[in-house]
Input
Amino acid sequence: MVGPETGFFNEQVSRDQLPKEEERTGVLKFQILHNNLKEKPPDQHLIWLVGLKNVFSHQLPRMPKEYITRIVFDPKHQSLGLIKENTVIGGICFRMFPTQNFLEIVFCAIAANEQVKGYGTHMMNTLKDYAIRHNILHFLTYADESAIGYFRKQGFSRDIKLSRQAYLGYIKDYEGATLMECELNPRVPYTQFSIIINKQKEVIRQLIERKQAEIRKVHTGLSFSQGVHRIDIQEIPGILETGWKSSPEDSSKHNELDKDPEKLSVVLRNVLNQVKGHPNVWPFKEPVKEDEYPDYYETIRYPIDLHTVSERLKSGYYSCCRLFIADMLRIFRNCRTYNEKSSDYYKYANAVERFFINKMKEVGAMVDMT
Ligand code: COA
Output
């Protein structure tokens, strides 16, 4: 017997379900049939071999009967017989070329009244498992036009992976037929294949369902009852469930002070007052007057000055060091953009900026601004 080990997974409907069920209940069985001259096969095997020859003769009318008989009873060929209630209902006649790593399928047929019930599929899968057990990983066959569809569904293709030298001169050549190959994967238990695929489909369906249930979940959202204050991204309900992770760079862009709005405001006000006391700070104290510099607001898209920064600080706009530093540095950058490098303004911008950065570092409020 060459049947599969069954019953590992729960089965769902598939093409080979009926034959597998019949095999499980003992109605159906596979048998390797072989006209072995050295060791006489049991009479029953020879009777089944004759039955199989008849199935081939009926189902392959274009093949001469004598030729079928010669090949089926040739000692170099074997057949996988499909026996249902002691009668042969189909089979595959093949020849193995172990040194060439391939198996040639010569005839393959199912009796007319048993076709399209999945026997052809299960029979081919059984032969695949049998070949793998004998270390053969390629099937070759010449398929006539009407059989190409069936072989394609069994994993055969016109794209021959085996090198020509491996089969040239070994395989029988049929005029008008198409050479097809099926490459076997030794890790696939072919007779269990449909069960495994169904099981995998079921697992994927459950995973999708679980993921969708998570996606559909409605989170409570943010509360502003205590006023507006800065929070870390991961505190937003639902963010962590999306797989979000903070990167090390994120933490270098924040400062411990950001967590305490009152302390932050005191520290920033202190630095701002010191900057306002710098001897070169006067050009940056108020917004640039348009009547004095008519093209200023055409050149500088985002103007800012220390008075505006003070107003923003009072209103609680600076929820973190980073926002405050960005505005302050923009004051000096704008100045350098508008003025010549040789101008006093340019030099003042550099001097006050250096002073500002040093003060921020002194109070531990500087963050990475890249
Ligand atoms: N052309 C295209 N598709 C075919 C086919 C053919 N000649 N014969 C079967 N199929 C399809 C089936 O519709 C089924 O498709 P599905 O799974 O998408 O529904 C699939 O192949 C397998 O069907 P299954 O029931 O397992 O096959 P079977 O028991 O009918 O056996 C043959 C298939 C080819 C062996 C059988 O039809 C037969 O004996 N035909 C006459 C002899 C022959 O042509 N042999 C092949 C060359 S030696």
User: Anything to note?
Assistant: Residues 15, 59-60, 107-110, 115-121, 143, 146-147, 149-150, 153 surround coenzyme A (CB under 6 Å). The two ends are 72 Å apart (CA to CA). The chain has two domains: 4-193, 251-362. The chain has 13 helices and six strands.
